[in-house]
Amino acid sequence: MNYTTKQIAEITQSQLIGNKDLKIQHIAFDSRSIYSVIKTAFIAINTPTNSGEKYISQAIEKGIKIIISENFHPEFDGITWIIVENSVKFLQDLAKYQVEKNPQLKTIGITGSNGKTIVKEWLYQCLWNEMPTVKSPKSFNSQIGLPLSLLQISEKHQLGIFEVGISKPSEMQVLEDIFSPKIGVLTHIGTAHSSNFKNEEELISEKILLFKNSETIIFNGDNVLVYNKIKDIYTEKKLISFGLENRNDVKIISDPENLNEEIKVQYFNEEFSFPANQRDEATLTNALALVCVMKELHFSNEKIIEKINALKAVEMRLESVNGVRNNLIINDSFNLDLDSLIIAYQFIKQYNKAEKTLILTDIIDVKEDEFSLYNKVADLTNEQNFSQVFLIGTQITRFKEKFKAKTFTFRKTKKLIESQQLEQLENQLILLKGARIFEIDQIKKHLELQKHDTVLEINLNSIIHNINVHKALLKPETKVCAMVKAYSYGLGGYEIAEFLQHHHIDYLGVAFADEGVDLRKNGITTPILVMNPEQGSYDTIIDYNLEPEIYSLRVLELFTHQLQLKGIQRKYPIHLKIETGMHRLGFKEYEIDELLAQLKKYNVKVASIFSHLSSSDIPEEKEYTLSQIEIFKRVSDKIIKELDYKPIRHILNSSGITNYTDYQFDMVRIGIGMIGISPTPEIKEQLQNAVTFKTVISQISEVKKGDSIGYSRKYKAEKDTRVATIPVGYADGIPRLIGNKIGFVGIHKEKVPIIGNICMDMLMADIGNIAAKDGDEVIIFNGNPTLEEFSEYCKTIPYEVLTSISRRVKRIYIKN
Ligand SMILES: *Cc1c(COP(=O)(O)O)cnc(C)c1O
Q1: Mutation probe of ligand 1 site: the residue of 471, 483, 652 with most atoms within 8 A of C-beta
Q2: 577 CB under 6 A from ligand 1?
Q3: Shortest CA distance to 41 belongs to which of 75, 74, 2, 76?
Q4: 715 is catalytic
Q5: Which CATH class is domain 455-684?
Q6: Is the pTM of this model over 0.85?
């Protein structure tokens, strides 16, 4: 895209206020991840649940000069405005225009439930050096993502590969109207359907609307409903079905489990074979989709085989790990192109580290001329304020002069490591971005804080996803407090809070003042509620601007006394806890008159009134729960009547949100639900697993029938078998009581029993004839077994399991 402000206003029939000759090449919609302000406009997107106009000032602060918005905000100086009627529609109209203006473009549209992104990325790997190709970045596929992706199309492109995802009925029609692909690809559609669709059939009908005007439809025919529906509806089109089932036009006719045999494909009446390392069903099915598209584009079988052989895994995650000398390493050394570099630059915006270092290699898979490519890379990089840049390779190093930061060049990764310059890095955010062949993973290993095989892996995106699943049940204006007490339920300290803050969580909840202080020291500015404000900690609470739970008249008096001692002038925020049936902490109903009388005397502001449900997860206790809610309502009404402002009210925890949605009041407090646990099956199904405890096998031994395993000879082998020794024990938080076949761990996707007594740092498992070897991964929980299953072995609940994982187990954080 390359337009002036005037052209854009004309194309979309919008009103222009300001400079009509400014150039727009990019549109940013998330003010937090603006990575460049050159020729960039910010669009304030208004959706039913959020208004992007809140973030206009942030965008302007970052240097944006052009704002696209539904409303004009005259308070900002020197800004050019494009005033649109509907922000989402604006993007869609502009994208439609962009597609129509480029009739030379052959288009491929990919939809489905699983595999869209992999098929798209793989197709791109196969096709980019055959013809100029444009694609959607990573998994940019929504109502907003598709238009933004389409805006990248230019005259030079011949092929466009776009992912089209929907989450609700009637969305596809809108998208099909702006983007109607010549070749439609439908990947796997699972039987599970999201709750937004009545049933599987509705989901399928909606997705295949994308192909209304396609010439060819390439579809996964393993789902019989899909197969019949497409054959019924699209009788006039060229249809190609692929999959593992026999009815498909394109299928696999060899036995994938036989590793000595290549994968043999039948394509209508033709047969050919290709080698494959990964042979799981999803990978093979996705490969079939590639075969079909390449055939459709008239590739020879030899060429197709060559392309499939060259495929590389699509890694979709950026990994952040703590490094030595308080460095934070963001590792994205899986692939490198301009798109993924931009994503990495957007990503690092969310960290507060003052100093940043970039380690960047040659970009390999690109057909653009070097000069223009590395100029773009340097321009983008110069906008990120890195304090130093290390360039590795033979190409990029020739452009050293273009980089404004202190820049060093190396021919090879090894040379940088040998130079000892890495040893100088301290307190830095270090972004590692390299093409795979440079193996800059070596740098990560070099900088990483002590490497551990045993880790608790936390997926931060899943946490946000899970919050959003809960939020979808709530009114848009209901606030969310994330409970991050007890080291975020064992998952970690500020890392999680930082991510939640970045995603605009309204409140954070901790148990003790110390926990809140830790967050503040790490740059968390979100309001923090302290539920157990110990008497000795009032001073700290005030110093660090934490907000105490006040649960008795005594605490109110002591706390306000401290406020006076410190000479605090402003009305200090406090949170009143009401006792409604938990019988733990809180004001009893009969104390409220006295409380109200006292409140008038003190210089405090009741920021919120809340209570806690004892049994929101237990259906049999519905009556009790409702009575708690009733008391809460009555008491809080009474308090509010006496105040001349409205405090926030909240009572629901995670299972409260799902089971008592009607009583959300002004805020909810989510805890375990963030991690992916819910007692409600329909909710559980939508949640993602946010935590995995895993390690690797230290050693495998053959044992004979009758041999004893471990301390005290508590277990004797029942037959000849193989035993894996696994480096976690009760000191890591695995209860000793789950030894001797009470508990299981996961190896090669199977559950294998723990045998013998669990030791302090190790345990043993009977792996029978599973083809595992030393160093293979072991899942302690979440996967197979799940966290819930593991909790059952331990005769407890996930909360206790998580908070018992010892601090010596390294936490690592993954963001997709
Ligand atoms: C821990 C806690 C929560 C969160 O409970 P979950 O069941 O984990 O959602 C909510 N409110 C209070 C007061 C808590 O202590």
Answers
A1: 483
A2: no
A3: 2
A4: no
A5: alpha beta
A6: no
